[in-house]
């Protein structure tokens, strides 16, 4: 069995983690696990972790590290026979250390996007809560404004995507993300991408992964996901 591939994508809110993760999943057959989507699934299912996490998310706070780790690591054990891309986890040094004790990462992609670009993107971000599908009225609008293309259900905007909420979120993100980025840079597996357009970043991410993922593995995974 070819060695499985493990990757993480890091970046501030609005940097394009979800957008790029979807492209990676469909191009390379990696399983995309988004901590935000997984939390929303647990909240909807009223699991113990979901009920607890909800109290923090409603206050716009990060979910405590021990709750996130206890939620995410068992999910990764279930995915142990797949190659995967983690999005939104790890977010803190404690989470990164817990993840590193559980598995060996091959690549960490870090998106470095200017503040004004993030503000503009999030101002126009619309989300279908149940599926986590993400739209943007300028970049990838839904066929019908305010309606999810697949389910026909209404799209929403996150309260904390508003510009006034964003500056505080970004300052907190920078403080919390820096030690995580430094850790993976020290491990020699960090790849930083800076631009204002996802379509200009994507070719570089795609060629990095093409070089890193063994072709037999990528072919096998594409076969299982289509
Ligand atoms: N790894 C994590 N550690 C702690 N809290 C998390 C983590 N991932 C998600 N959360 C919580 O869940 C909420 C929703 O996460 P989600 O990733 O969907 O949106 P976000 O973090 O606001 O950022 P983005 O705009 O980048 O998607 C976060 O605001 C945070 O409270
Ligand atoms: N204008 C523009 N919007 C983008 C670009 N890339 C992503 N977006 C949109 O910007 C918002 C944030 O992207 P998302 O993938 O959700 O970022 P995340 O918060 O890091 O997961 C979404 O509405 C995306 O559709 C881009 O290159 N240009």
Automatic annotation (TrEMBL):
**SUPFAM superfamilies given in the database record:** Microbial and mitochondrial ADK, insert 'zinc finger' domain, P-loop containing nucleoside triphosphate hydrolases
Stretches the record annotates as LID: 124-161
Record bears the keyword DNA damage = no
Q: Where in the cell is it found?
A: Mitochondrion matrix
Example GO molecular function term?
A: AMP kinase activity
- Residues recorded as binding AMP, renumbered to this chain, are 35, 40, 61-63, 88-91, 95, 169
Q: Could you say which protein family the record assigns here?
A: Belongs to the adenylate kinase family. AK3 subfamily.
Question: What's the subunit arrangement here?
Answer: Monomer.
Q: What is this protein called?
A: Adenylate kinase 4, mitochondrial
Q: Which organism is it from?
A: Ictalurus punctatus
């Amino acid at each position: 069995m070819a060695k499985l591939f493990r990757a993480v994508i890091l970046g501030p809110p609005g940097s394009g983690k979800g957008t790029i993760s979807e492209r990676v999943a469909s191009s390379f057959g990696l399983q995309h696990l988004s901590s935000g989507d997984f939390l929303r699934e647990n909240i909807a299912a009223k699991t113990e972790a979901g009920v607890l996490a909800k109290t923090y998310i409603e206050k716009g706070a990060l979910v405590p590290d021990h709750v996130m780790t206890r939620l995410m690591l068992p999910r990764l054990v279930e995915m142990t026979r797949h190659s995967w891309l983690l999005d939104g986890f790890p977010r803190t040094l404690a989470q990164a250390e817990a993840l590193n004790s559980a598995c060996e990462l091959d690549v960490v992609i870090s998106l470095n996007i200017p503040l004004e670009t993030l503000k503009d993107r999030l101002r126009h971000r619309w989300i279908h809560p149940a599926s986590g599908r993400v739209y943007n009225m300028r970049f990838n609008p839904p066929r019908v404004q305010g309606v999810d293309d697949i389910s026909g259900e209404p799209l929403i905007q996150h309260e904390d995507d508003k510009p006034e909420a964003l500056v505080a979120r970004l300052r907190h993100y920078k403080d919390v993300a820096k030690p995580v980025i430094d850790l993976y840079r020290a491990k020699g597996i960090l790849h930083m991408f800076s631009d204002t357009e996802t379509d200009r970043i994507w070719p570089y991410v795609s060629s990095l992964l093409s070089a890193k993922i063994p072709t037999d593995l990528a072919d096998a995974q594409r076969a299982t996901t289509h």
